[in-house]
């Protein structure tokens, strides 16, 4: 596998673009994005588990039910959530406008929105500018599309990789937006993934449904799950590889084991890598964040236990605040593990008296807790380690298992409150 340029435009047959159409009149940034495949695509998606769902989520869920898409149209500046029947009409008009200029079936268009909840979507400005969004489509239009979907993001988040399957180069490209309202199920984000792989629908679905829980669903910034979250993958088969999963052996694949299919394994590992790297980018760009914080739990017998414990620590406001202050307050780590069952609603048994905690970064690693108790350590060295921009909280629960799980988050700073205290203004 190698990293390449191009984002969602890296795979063959995909174009993208972005324009400013004035969804927020005072903003001068691009606010409408489009991704388009020149050929029919197999597609699947995962959506927010929030009971309050934006109109775009409902429309996209309906359109992707047949496993096909050709395009995604996405706006920033307005979430079109909690907007009632008028919001649903606006989302459908957005879908129909894109389909009209692209000369495709409206049911082959996914719709995505992000921004302030509860305000009517000014669909007229989108319809007025829909010809311009079509004209913006280019084979190198990924940067414009990415700019058009970001909100409070301070960094652009995209990646593309190339792998080889049945002797053919296969590419996967992706972009995401996400900075605040980020918490598992499924993190708060818009994520769009393209690939020129020839892949059976069951294999594509199995790959996405395994990759998301191991990446985007292991991301937390602030404990809030949004109304608009989605991640969509489209595969147009332009790479010309032998179809992955064509025998249909992947239909019953669950999240606990990978099928015995070499081509699928190659594709899946590349997809998971893409999703994990985007997850790390979002965690590093958490609203107001100064640090990427990785929480890794090792020594577990069950993946669910390690994941639940790691999520509880990464979500703790006290742990996050300690990371911001470079304070080696390891007691907050054990405390967060102790209430993990209640927070995550699933069993996460561990023995505090067997648990070790270390802090790690580019400045070194230091053990601060052994068998649930403090050990002598240099506070100065610990602070030096925790001042780095990327830090890791390493927890060994010593159950005798070999399972390791990482969850990604960030520190909690004064700026987080500032950003969200006047988000609408």
CATH uppermost class of the largest domain: Alpha Beta
Q: Please give the CATH architecture of the largest domain.
A: 4-Layer Sandwich
Rg to the nearest angstrom?
22 Å
Strand tally is 15
CATH topology name of the largest domain: L-amino peptidase D-ALA esterase/amidase
Tell me the quaternary state: single chain
Q: Could you give the order of the helices and strands?
A: EEEHEHEHHHEEEHEHEHHHHEEEHEEH
Q: Would you identify the CATH H-level superfamily of the largest domain?
A: L-amino peptidase D-ALA esterase/amidase
The shape is globular
Q: Look at the structure and give the mean pLDDT.
A: 89
From the N-terminal CA to the C-terminal CA, the straight-line distance is 44 Å
**Residue share in helix:** 25-40%
Summarize the main sheet. Answer: 9 strands, mixed
Give the structural class. alpha+beta
**Number of domain units:** 2
| Low-pLDDT segments | 180-184
Q: Count every helix, treating DSSP H or I runs of 4 or more residues as helices.
A: 13
Percent of residues in β-strands: 25-35%
């Amino acid at each position: 596998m190698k990293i390449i340029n191009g984002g969602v435009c890296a795979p063959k047959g995909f174009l993208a673009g972005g324009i400013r159409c004035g969804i927020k009149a005072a903003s001068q940034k691009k606010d409408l994005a489009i991704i388009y495949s020149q050929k029919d695509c197999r597609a699947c998606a995962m959506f927010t588990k929030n009971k309050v769902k934006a109109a775009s989520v409902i429309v996209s869920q309906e359109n992707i039910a047949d496993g096909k898409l050709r395009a995604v149209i996405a706006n920033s500046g307005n979430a079109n959530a909690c907007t009632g029947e008028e919001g649903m009409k606006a989302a459908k008009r957005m879908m129909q406008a894109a389909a009209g200029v692209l000369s495709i079936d409206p049911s082959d268009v996914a719709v995505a929105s992000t921004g302030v909840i509860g305000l009517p979507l000014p669909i007229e400005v989108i319809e007025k500018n829909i010809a311009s969004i079509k004209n913006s489509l280019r084979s190198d239009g990924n940067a414009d599309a990415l700019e058009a979907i970001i909100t409070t993001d301070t960094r652009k988040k995209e990646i593309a990789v190339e792998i080889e399957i049945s002797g053919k180069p296969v590419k996967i490209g992706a972009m995401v937006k996400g900075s605040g309202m980020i918490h598992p199920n499924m993190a708060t984000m818009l994520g769009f993934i393209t690939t020129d792989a020839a892949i059976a629908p069951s294999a594509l679905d199995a790959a996405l449904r395994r990759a998301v829980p191991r990446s985007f669903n292991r991301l937390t910034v602030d404990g809030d799950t949004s109304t608009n979250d989605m991640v969509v993958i489209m595969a147009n088969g332009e790479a010309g590889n032998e179809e992955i999963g064509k025998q249909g052996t992947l239909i019953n694949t669950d999240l606990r084991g990978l099928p015995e299919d070499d081509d699928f394994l190659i594709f899946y590992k590349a997809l998971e890598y893409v999703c994990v790297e985007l997850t790390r980018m979002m965690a590093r760009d958490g609203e107001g964040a100064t640090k990427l914080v990785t929480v890794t739990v090792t020594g577990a017998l069950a993946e669910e236990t390690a994941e639940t414990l790691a999520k509880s620590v990464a979500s703790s406001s006290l742990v996050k605040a300690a990371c911001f202050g470079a304070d080696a307050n390891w007691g907050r780590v054990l405390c967060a593990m102790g209430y993990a069952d209640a927070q995550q609603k699933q069993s996460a048994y561990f023995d505090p008296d067997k648990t070790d905690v270390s802090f790690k970064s580019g400045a070194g690693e230091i053990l601060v807790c052994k068998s649930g108790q403090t050990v002598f350590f240099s506070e100065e060295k610990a602070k030096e380690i925790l001042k780095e921009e990327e830090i890791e909280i390493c927890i060994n629960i010593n159950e005798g298992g070999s399972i390791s799980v990482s969850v990604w988050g960030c520190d909690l700073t004064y700026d987080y409150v500032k950003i969200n205290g006047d988000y609408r203004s």
